[in-house]
Write a structure and sequence with these properties.
Length: 353
């Protein structure tokens, strides 16, 4: 199967540090190649892939301070994909609504995986315009704001089974991994750890847009309890960071579409204490891979129940549910459905005399 993958341009594929969508695209692309498919990855030139790389610019947008209009780079990539559409059996987009108008007007089967939140008012209008085109959700909950789209399937994320593994290290803290922003709930994590009398290690990125929030809301909390702020970490650092934690705290306060850090933690055998928002009940299995809670008080109580959980079983559930091979096979099945549907003759109504 000849497959085009259209990746975001803000980060390399895979991202060097933080970056969820690009990490998923990399996992999917590499697995498709391993399965014998011919894959072309449209991405930034600093991406690393076993597929054919169609470099749309030299480096990721986030690394280039000279970029003034990022939309121009996306539109150029969309046009490039459109001109090459005939080379592929299926086109898979991961860049939201940008290519939908063009892809809808050409003959190659295509689909769009939506990776972000869909509860903003403009999204209903723009995606509704292309409601007849096939979309993939990354959790069932993600669909709720726009249920009228042509939802072809929900495909949960996956990652390579050997990317992150449990390490036999001393466990003496709680972990927070990801990004510092109001919706990610680092303030909650700090208070939970302090109330439980446990150390908290924070491996998180602070975007420019969130620097004011970090300075005004988070920095004053860092003196509560015992908090070690590490900053961004890469994949090579994650096994030790997550394996050394009693649990990962995931105290979100927004409709999380998926939450890749939950399965990264599970891959290391580390249970997750997660707030019941968005995709959490679809990813987490309460009492098996961690605990799902509603309040900070419930989170503190859940920490006392961690000895009930089997970390070997946590890793086993990752292997059973969240590998990139499972994810890739789900997508291949859908690709074939779209290709077969495109080939099928369609009956046309004939007006009566």
């Amino acid at each position: 199967m000849r497959i085009a993958q259209i990746a975001p341009l803000f980060e390399a594929v895979p991202p060097k540090l933080y970056g969820g969508t690009e990490r998923v695209v990399h996992s999917l692309t590499e697995e498709l190649v391993a399965m014998g498919h011919e894959v072309t990855l449209f991405a930034s030139g600093d991406s690393i892939t076993s597929a054919k790389l169609a470099a749309m610019r030299p480096e990721a947008l986030r690394l280039d301070p000279t970029v003034k209009d990022w939309v121009a780079h996306y539109m150029r990539m969309v046009e490039t994909v459109g001109r090459r559409a005939g080379e592929f059996d299926v086109i898979h987009s991961h860049i939201d609504y940008f290519p939908l108008g063009l892809l809808d007007r050409q003959g190659t089967p295509f689909l769009t995986t939506l990776h972000g939140r869909l509860d903003l008012p403009e999204f209903g209008e723009i995606y509704g315009t292309y409601a007849h085109t096939p979309f993939v959700s990354i959790s069932d909950h993600q669909r709720l704001p726009i249920p009228q789209l042509d939802w072809a399937r929900t495909i949960l994320h996956g990652m390579p089974a050997d990317r992150l593994k449990p390490l036999d290290v001393k466990r003496d803290y709680l972990a927070f991994l990801g990004r510092v922003s109001p919706e990610k709930g680092l303030d909650r994590a700090i208070r939970i750890a302090a109330a439980a009398g446990m150390k908290l290690k924070v491996a998180a990125k602070v975007d420019n847009a969130d620097k004011a929030y970090f300075e005004s809301e988070i920095k004053p909390l860092l003196s509560i309890g015992e908090v070690e702020f590490i900053g961004e970490i890469n994949d090579d650092q994650k096994p030790e960071f997550l394996s050394g934690a009693h649990a990962l705290l995931f105290p979100i306060r927004w409709p999380e579409p998926f939450g890749l850090v939950m399965i990264e933690s599970m891959a290391c055998g580390t249970p997750v204490i997660a707030f019941r928002h968005g995709s959490v009940p679809e990813v987490m299995e309460d009492g098996l891979t961690g605990f799902i809670v509603e309040t900070e008080e419930e989170a503190v109580a859940a920490l006392k129940r961690l000895p009930e959980l089997d970390r070997t079983r946590v890793r086993q559930r990752f292997d059973e549910r969240f590998t990139s091979r499972r994810m890739a096979q789900d997508y291949v099945d859908l690709y074939q459905e779209l290709i077969d549907a495109k080939k099928s003759p369609r009956l046309r109504a004939v007006a009566g005399n």
